[in-house]
Amino acid sequence: MYKWYALKRILRGVFMFALLMFIFSFLFNQVNEQTQRSQINEQVKMESMRLKGMKPEQITAWRDNRTDQLIKMYKLDRPLMERVLFRAVNTVTFNFGKSTVIKSSKGEQDVLDILMEALPRTMILFTSAIVFELIIGIALGLKKAQKPGGKLDKSTSFITMIIYGMPSWWLGMMLILLFVYVLKLFPSGGVNSVPTPAGFAFVLDRIWHMALPILTLVILGFWSLSFVIRNLVLSTLQEDYIMSARARGIPESKVLFGHTLRTAAPPIVTMALLSLLASLSGAIIFEGIFSWPGLGNLYWVAVQQNDIPVLMGDLAITTGIYQAGLVFLDLIYGFLDPRIKVGGKA
Amino acid sequence: MSMKDVGYRFKEFWDDFRKETSGLIGLGILVLSLVVVLFEPVFLPFKDVDGNWRNISYWQDSPPAAPPAWTNLFAAEKSATTAYLNDPIVEDVDDPDFGLARVYTFKYNYKYDKSPLDIIFRAKGDGMLFMNLSVIRPDGETVYLGQVYEDGLAGDDIRFTVDTDARSSVYEFIRAHASEEAIANSDSSNVKATDIIFAKAGADMLSAREPLKGEYLYKVTIPASLFEDEANRIDEAKLIVTGRVSGVLGTDTSKRDIYSGIIAGLKWALFIGLVTSVISVLVGVLYGIISAYFGGTTDTIMSFIFEVFVSMPMLPILIVLSATFKPSIWIIIGAMIVFYWVGPVKTVRSMALQIKEETYIEAAKALGAGKWRIIFKHMAPILLPYSFANMALSVPGAIVAESSLSLLGLGDPSIISWGQILHDAQLSGATLNGLWWWIVPPGLFIAVMGMTFAFLGFAMDKILHPKLRTR
C-alpha cells in the first residue's frame, strides 16, 4: 500500500531529522560553553568600565548581577542535558527564538526572520546554477554517449578529471580577479548594488550580480554531470528496445530524447536533486568569496559571532531541507520509474 | 593469499594500467611530487622555511609583494632580481683613512632598468668591530654609505641596509652632483637610496633617472689593527641585493617566498590527503563487510548509524569544532575520517552480501573457521583491491576540505598548507591589489593534486570495475 509506505518514509525522515538535531545540539552546547562564558566575562568587563560614579563594592555587585543575568539569558546555569534537550526540542519544533547578536536587514532579532531572508538568496543562486548545469550536461552527455570513445568523449572526460579536485572557491577567486579587476565587467560581490534600483532594473541588477557565481558553478559542475549522464545513456542505448525503435525508423532525435532520456531520467533527477540539496549547506566559503548573503555566509558569521540560535537554526533549515528532499525523492520515485512497484513492505 | 599471488595480481593490474594514458600521467605527477617531498631541501631556496613561515625576522631581507622573477621576460623595463653574494674578495690594502686595512669586496653586475629595493650587508661578529661601507660605481664615483661600530659582540648578527642606514650619506652624494634648483624642488624624504646609487650622476639626476649599468663594487673596510686582538672576528660576510622581482613565484606582503611555501606545503597536502583517505576507506570497507556478514539486527543498526553519518554536513561541523578547539592537524585529519569513512560502505556492503553466499565461505565455515578469520582472511582480501580506486578518488576531497578550513583561518598554525597561504592572501586583499602570484599558485597546486588522484582513481576504477569500460 503506497500510503503506508509514504507514512513510514515520512516518519523515518522526521525521526532522522530529530536525531540529527539532538546530536548537533549536544555538540554545540558542549563545545561553545567555554567560549560563551569567557565572552560573557569580557562583555561584563567592558560594560562595567563605562560605569561612572560608583563605589568599588557597588561595581562588583553590579558585575556579579550582570553576569548572572547574562548566564541566565544564555541558559548556562542549567545542567548540560537540560540545555541540550531544550535546544533540540525547540529546533525540531522550529521554535528558534531570538538571536544573540545577528540582526536581519530590518533590524529584527527573530532567528526565523533572519533565516528566511537568507534562504531565498541561496536557493535562487544554486537552483539557477543547477538548471544551467543540467541543460549543458544533458546535451554534452548525449553527444558523448553517441560516439563513446570518440574524440569529443575522450577530451571531455579528460577535462572532467582535470577539474575533479579544483575547489569552486578558488575558481571563484580567479574569475573575480579576471572579470572584476582586470576586465571590470562584473561586480565583486553582493546581491544588489547600493542604492538598490526598483522595478525591472532590479531584476537586471540581480542577474548582473549573479552572473559570476553562477558562471563559476556551471564551469565546474557540468563536466561530471555530463560524464554520469553519458554512462547512464550509454547503458540504455545497448537495450534491445532502442535497437528495435531505430529499426522501426524512428528519428534519432526521438530515440534519444523520447526513449533513452526517459529511461535514464530517474537517476538523473535523483542526482540533480541530491547535488542541489548538498550545495545548499556546503557553500559556506563559496558564498563568502562572492559576499553572497545566503545561508552559507550566515553560518560563517554566526560561527564568528558565536550566535548559537542562528547557528542551530541555519543547520536545522539545511538539514531539514536535505531530509525532506530525500523523503520527496523516495516518494516520487515510483512515478519517475513505473517499473518500480512499491509494495507495503518497502 | 601468498606473496606470489600478490605479485601476480599486481603484474596483471600493471599490464592493464600501462594502457591508461591519464593514469600514467597521474602516476608520473605523483612520483614527481614524492621526489620533491623526499628531497625537499634541494628544491627549497629558503632551507628553514618549515618552522619559520610565521617568523618575521627570518624573512626580513626579502622584498615585500614582489612579482616572480620571470615576469621580467614580459616587461619592457627590466627590474633587478634578488641576488645573494656570499663570496667577497678579501684583501689587505693601504687605506687613506685607516692605514693598513682589510677590505671585503662584493662585485655586483647591474644590468637592469629598475634599481634594486635595498642592499643588505650581513655578517656575524665577535668582540669589537669597526667598519666603513662604500660603493664604487662603474663611472668611478664612490658613494660613501656609512659606518658600523659594534662592541661586545658574541657571534651576533651585524646588519646594514642601504635603504634605512645609508639614507643621509647617499643624500650627500646627491648634493655633490645634482643642481641646487633640482634639490630645492625635490622632497628629500621621497628619494630612495638605491635609486640614486644605480642612476647616472648629473645635474638632473633627481628628475630624469637613467640607470647606470655595469659592475658595482661594494666595499667593507675594516682597519687591520683591529684583528691584532684575537677576540675580534668577522665571519660569514655576505651581501643581499633585494630585487623588485624575486624568486620563482614572488613574495607576499610579509616578504615570504611563496615558492618555498608551496613546496613546503606539498608534503602536508599529500600527507593529509593520503592518511585521511586510506584510513577512512579501510574503516568503511571493514564496516561494510562486517555489516553484510553478520546481517540481521547488527546489519540494521549498522546501516542506521551509517545513514546518520551520511546525513551530517561535514564542513559546518568541522568549522564549529576547529573554531572552538585549538586547531591541530591531527584533530582535523581525525574529524575528516569521521565523515569520510561512509564513502565506500554502500558498495562494499552489497558486494560482501554476494561473496558471503559463495561456496568457499561455506567451506571455510564447515572447516570451523571463526567469523573474524572469514572476514579478514577470505572477504577483506577480495574486496580491498576494489577500494583502491576509492582511496585515490577521495584524496582530493580531503585536500580541499583541509584547504577550506585553512582558508577560513582555522588551520593548524604549526604547519604550512596551501589553504593557509590563500587565507593570508585573502586577508591582505591580494585580489584587490592584483597580487595574482599569491592567489593563483596555491589553488593551482590544490587543483593539480586533485587532478593527479583523479587520473589515478579513474584509471584504477576502469581496471578494477571492468563493467565501466568504454564499450
Question: How would you characterize this protein structure?
Answer:
The complex is a heterodimer of chains A (346) and B (471). Chain A is mostly helical. Helix content of chain A is 76%, strand content 0%. In chain A, helix 4 packs across helix 7 (200-237). The longest helix of chain A is centred in the first third of the chain and has 48 residues, at 2-49. Chain A is elongated. The N and C termini of chain A lie close together (9 Å). The mean pLDDT of chain A is 83. By secondary structure, chain B is of the alpha+beta class. Chain B folds into two domains: 3-42 and 257-464, MetI-like fold, CATH 1.10.3720.10; 77-242, Jelly Rolls, CATH 2.60.120. Chain B is built from 17 helices and seven strands. In chain B, strands 1, 2, 3, 4, 5, 6 and 7 form a seven-stranded antiparallel sheet that branches. In chain B, helix 8 (258-294) runs antiparallel to helix 9, helix 8 runs antiparallel to helix 14 (371-407) and helix 15 runs antiparallel to helix 17 (436-464). The radius of gyration of chain B is 32 Å and the shape is elongated. The chains are: A mainly alpha (346), B alpha+beta (471). The interface between A and B is large, with 50 and 47 residues.
